[in-house]
Amino acid sequence: MTGLTAELVVDGRAPRTPALAPNGQLLCYVVAPISRTGDHLDTELWLLETDGAAASRRATTDTAAESRPRWSVDSGTLFFLSDRADRGTSQVHRLTLADGAATALTCWRAGIIDHLPLTDPNLVALLAEDEHTEQDTRRAQDRDDAIVVGEREPRARLRLLDLRTGQVTTPSVFGDRHVVELRQRPDGGPLAVLTQANADKDYGPRTGRLHLFDPTTGTAEDLGPVEAEAHSLAWWPGEDGWHLGYVALTPPVLQAGTAVFDLTVDSHVRCNRTSGLPMCPTELHQTDTAPLVVFADGLNTTLARLDHAGPTTLSQHPGQLEDLATTPTGEKIAALTGTRYQPANVHVGPPTGPLRKITDTRPELDGIIFGTQRPLAYRAADGLDLDGLLVLPVGKSASDGPFPLVTIVHGGPYDRYADRCQLSWFPSAQWLATAGYAAFLPNPRGGQGHGHAFAASVAGRVGREEWTDILTGIDLLTAEGIADPDRLGIAGVSHGGFMSAWAIGQTDRFRAALVLAGVTDWGMLAATGENGQFEAALGGSTGWSGIGPHPHDAVSPISFASRIRTPVLILHGTEDTNVPLSQAVYFHRALRHFGAEHEFVIYPREGHSIRERNHQLDVLRRTRAWFDRWLQP
Fold first, then answer.
1. Contact at 8 Å (CB) between 125 and 116?
2. Which of 70, 262, 286, 293 is deepest in the core (most CB within 10 A)?
3. Rounded mean pLDDT of the chain?
4. In angstroms, rounded to a whole number, what is the distance separating the alpha carbons of residues 335 and 314?
């Protein structure tokens, strides 16, 4: 048996986006490294027979970023994106199974964002930005490239690739709107097209509209507005004609649970098909008949069929199931799922289950002993049912406690902990368990998996009831003799980083804290973060909401910096546009002003997630050393 090392955590590879051939016999999936060592993230396409008759094989031998595998209707051709010719600029490629040859189909200077092979074997729909003109190039070379906000902003447009001629044409439809997603009707009819006013993440997701586009005539029809964050388009036939569905946030609160919305195309009548359910849809998938819906269901996952009367449960899966793919008949599916002690791999089978594991992308973890993981169920102070996970130190049982306990809060807040393997480059539960720590992974209100009301309850109230939800769980583990009340730590990334920063401004119970890419001032985040309107919904106000006092000040950790006595490690990437570096700088300056013990580490070139191998190793080692310093006797 070997022990878990930081290198074992970050040097692994993970499967992504499985794609089933329409005949169900072949599957293509992407293999991506967990960390990046160079300027580009090199990924690979692999092919596998779903009956397990042969081992997986590389689809190509290129060193490139390969992604978005899509099958032709006859299952004989695989289309995918690759940047092998010009790194960082993806083009559509075609792999013909008969001869194994892969050829580039486009040379679009701006690169291809996405693609969809149509039922017409000669057409592929593309999403791509406009190509740069010679005038653009001259202006850049002359440094006459001032950016005027609102002018010449990049937008993805619908384009058509004719495989007979190799020509790419751009239909004059949708005006200057940014195209987000495409889905063709199962019978080969029009395309459903989802657009936004622009690509800006703050404004665009609130301006979605649905359209129909006929690739034969080149004409389009506007079906009207859709709810915020719409995605996952799917068609299905009904007695009253064709229906078009999608997953989106439940109005009117921007921070809310998701729902499946159903638009009857002929009448333009729209309704919420998952209203009142105690779980949250995450994916909607088209078949020839009724679509399939993936639900986050507490700590686990439910797969259902969207029938006329509502969702019909087909199977339930422990932990998390995601990246679902299905054959057109819906009789076979592929998805990523794992266990408490095995990272996710591709599984196949009928939607009613069981699913069979057909890949093994992390054999290096075989033989590693993990800490025992168990689900928790408890009630909040106001009686609300809550859940979470407890991971014990490696080789220990609950009776061996009390242990130093690190509470790791998830991000979002519209995210969740599922009962799956808790191992990642972030100081995850299993990484800490190898060093003798117990880890508490709470799912407080505001998160995913318990319906709309559960998620929406934190809007304008972050740090209130969700904080007491977490504290109640810590008190429970302390009372059970699992947590040592004198050796408590707290950690989190993004919204979890906010909760960590918030916690140490509310209590001195924690002996150490970690804030990675954390929110410290909601007003500033609403003004500078890429998702400003969503952050404003969480914080409750913006800086331009009058002269104040503002509601967001009362829920911002920076307002309580003078109270902080807990040593805190602050980690942040310089290129983070989701939670900008200024959030960490603000917190650091406040702590320095008040003389609070802290360490501030900035990672160059990193965004909201840490991607470079050496930086991931530093996060793992530095954070465990930080907790060792303050929590170990």
1. yes
2. 293
3. 95
4. 15
Which tokens go with 402? 């009390």
C-alpha distances in Å from residue 244, one per residue of 190, 232, 262, 379: 12, 10, 6, 39
- Pick the closest to residue 536 from 609, 464, 462 (CA basis): 462
Sign of CA dihedral 82, 84, 89, 93: negative
Q: What is the pLDDT of residues 567-608, one digit of tens each?
A: 999 999 999 999 999 999 999 999 999 999 999 999 999 999
Domain boundaries, the chain: 71-131+155-364, 369-631
Tokens 């001195």, located at residue: 508
Distance between CA 522 and CA 542 in Å, rounded?
A: 8
For residue 234, the SS3 value is strand
Strand, helix or coil at 136?
helix
Residues 245, 261: contact at Cβ < 8 Å?
A: yes
* pLDDT over threshold 70, residue 139: no
Determine the distance from the C-alpha atom of residue 107 to the mean position of all C-alpha atoms in its chain, rounded to a whole number. 30
Residue 149 has pLDDT above 90, yes or no: no
Beta bridge partners of 337: 321, 345
The total number of residues written for the chain in this structure: 633
pLDDT band, residue 140 (cuts 50/70/90): low
Whether 558 has a pLDDT exceeding 70, the answer reads yes
At residue 342, φ and ψ (nearest 5 deg) are -135, 125
Structure tokens at 130: 């406009």
Q: What is the pTM of this model?
A: 0.96
CATH of domain 71-131+155-364: 2.130.10.10
* 144 Cβ contact partners less than 8 Å away, ≥ 6 residues apart: none
Lowest-confidence region among 135-149, 277-291, 533-547: 135-149
Complete edge-to-edge strand list for the sheet that includes strand 57-58? 13-20, 26-33, 44-49, 57-58
CATH (residue range 369-631): 3.40.50.1820
Residue 221: other Cβ atoms inside 10 A: 13
Cis peptide bond upstream of 413, omega within 30 = yes
pLDDT digits over 302-324, tens only? 999 999 999 999 999 999 999 99
In order of 7, 20, 431, the CA distances from 4 in angstroms are 8, 34, 8
Pairwise CA distance, residues 556 & 518, whole Å: 11
